[in-house]
Amino acid sequence: MSFWINRRRFMQTTSSAVAAGALSSVLPASAQSSGQLTVTVGGGDVGKATIEAFVKPFEAETGIKVNAITEDASMSAIELMVKSGNVTLDVGAVAQTTAITADGKGLLEKIDYSIHKKEELDGMFEFAKQPFGVAWPMYSYNMVYNTESFPASNPRPTTWADFWDVEK
Questions:
Q1: Domain segments of the chain as ranges
Q2: HSE-CB for 73 with a 13 A CA cutoff
Q3: What is the largest CA-CA distance in the chain?
Q4: For 119-160, what is each residue's pLDDT tens digit?
Q5: Rounded to a whole number, what is the distance in angstroms from the first to the last CA of the chain?
Q6: Which residues, 6+ apart, have CB-to-CB distance to 13 below 8 Å?
Q7: What's domain 7-134's architecture?
Q8: Tens digit of pLDDT for each residue in 52-93?
Q9: What is the rounded distance in angstroms from the CA atom of residue 65 to the CA atom of residue 36?
């Protein structure tokens, strides 16, 4: 079983979420009805990389136009869109705490995972499949060092204290 989330799997999941970051269940998806998706992708280099890695290939494969927004979807913006009935976002990348708060306020559309292929869902960690969104990206902080500076014949850092001990 593979746990790799490729761009196709990611975009299929997020696009079908239809507002995993913004829509109330009582409001229709504005971009979905027009054959377009409006998606937050983050700003700066992350936003540029997301457009290159996910948005452009998704558009080429599906023919669906993606309006990539290079700003974050804040809790106040999501709440204002839903309460005013002027939802302009289909999928938004938000922090888990924002998503949990927004879901608790009834601001998010639930994902119907039953419409997805089982083999694609099996390729995702269970914890990543939330009722209102999909966890991505997943990352970790790792301790790495230059093996020329720390050859196998000498002690190497094995704890964070060792790692940051500049005297050794």
A1: 7-134
A2: 32
A3: 66
A4: 999 999 999 999 999 987 778 888 888 999 899 999 998 899
A5: 43
A6: 111, 116, 120, 124, 134
A7: 3-Layer(aba) Sandwich (3.40)
A8: 999 999 999 999 999 999 988 889 999 999 999 999 999 988
A9: 5
